[in-house]
Amino acid sequence: MPESSQRTPWLNRTVLGVGLTSLFSDWSHETATAVLPAFLAAIGAGPVWLGAIEGIADGLSSFAKLASGHFTDRLKRRKPLAVFGYAFTALATASFAFATHAYHVLFARAAAWLGRGVRSPAKKALLAADVPPGAYGRAFGLERLMDTVGAIGGPLTALWLLEATGHSFRKVFLWTLLPGLIAVASFWLLVRERPAARKPPQSFLLGLKALPPSFRRLLTGVGVFGAGDFSHSLLILYAAKMLAPAHGMARAASLAVGLYTLHNVFYAGSAYLSGWLSDHVPSRKAVLAASYALAAVTAILLCTGTSSLWLLGLIFVLAGLYIGTEEALEDSLSAELVPKEQHGMAFGTLAAVNAVGDFASSLLVGFLWSAFNVQIAFSASALLFIIGAILILRLR
User: Fold this and answer.
1) In whole angstroms, what separates CA 109 from the centre of its chain?
2) What is d(CA 389, CA 77) in angstroms, rounded to the nearest whole number?
3) Half-sphere exposure of 394 (CA within 13 A, CB side)
4) Burial class (CB in 10 A: 0-12, 13-18, 19+), 208
């Protein structure tokens, strides 16, 4: 690693600003997400509406990340686009308070997630531009750590606010505006804009073709891994089903949520620690491949169909460890493989590949579980995880 990169301080105002922004923004929308299903039920909307709202919002967010990544590399300044995205998300999330029909929530959630998609590539490009390459792991790991702290704090805050407001959903939604606007202020006041060479205007397809071959090979490994990387909400369902015979449905559901909280704690810690480790080993790709291998171990343990609370605890811990490592290392390895003037396009494309993988994997595992059994479902995941790890190790 270059000596100058080691000497340059990495924990600067931009890293701190991006971290605080992620913390407060996630705190805001996770507070809203925690009470959203109950609010929809209160206004007479069922599970179909919730599925439609989440599916449409996630799809729009993925499309926005891809388009924003292409667009942000052509801007003289990326920061205003990111600030707009954070402000738009905060306002759209708070507008749930004025919804009286399910379609109002659909429009508001879609708008909020559109803002998330717009800001994401610009935020990551600004972070990479103000950090030496030898510290990418720590910088992106710290951002993931603080984001996850916000994700843990959001549901806890929602529970407290429901008690404090006499279960007023609308007051909870309005409260989300406070951390949402703190996120906007943190980004605007702390994050620096480093001058970067602008790409000449070109079509979207040409922009994709211009990405380095090594990055495209990374995307292949990420895509294969992502095809098996099921939503971790399935872990909650798995734990509840396996624990129900011994503990009863209500107790099993509570234990499953407790296990998921444990998962999130290890998720947060592993994001920074794995990033730090990747900055101090000769090859960053080895740490990412190790996390993919850890995912395979997790899937193999799930194949046992265990009802042991201790083994389920180990599964949730391993799942938290690999997902935190994966997210931090995919970003930092992308930043390392791609020139700074193409970072927006790279981060947007990476996000789109992950989104397609999330959608495909949850469908695949859910279908195999329903049509056959948990052994076949998670064996398929384990196989894809192993192939993904091999592809990452073969990167040059």
Assistant:
1) 17
2) 36
3) 13
4) middle
> What is the per-residue burial (b if ≥16 Cβ within 10 Å, else e) of 176-198?
bbebbbbbbbbbbebbeeeebee
CB 311 within 8 A of CB 304: yes
Give the count of beta carbons closer than 10 Å to the beta carbon of residue 169.
22
The share of the chain scoring above pLDDT 70, in percent, equals 94
Greatest mean pLDDT among 44-53, 174-183, 246-255 lies in: 174-183
Amino acid symbol at 254: S
pLDDT > 60? residue 114: yes
- 337 vs 193: CA distance, rounded Å: 21
**Which amino acid, 349?**
T
For 348, phi then psi, to 5°, come to -65, -45
Q: Report pTM.
A: 0.79
> CB neighbours (10 Å) of residue 165?
14
Contact assessment for residue 69 and residue 344, using Cβ atoms and an 8 Å cutoff: yes
Which residues, other chains included, contact 122 with Cβ-Cβ below 8 Å and sequence gap of 6+?
68, 72, 78, 79, 81, 82, 85, 344
Evaluate whether 100 touches 126 at the Cβ level (below 8 Å).
no
Residue 30, exposed/middle/buried by CB under 10 A (0-12, 13-18, 19+)?
A: buried
> Which has more confidence, 364 or 81?
81
Q: What per-residue confidence (pLDDT) applies to 242?
A: 87
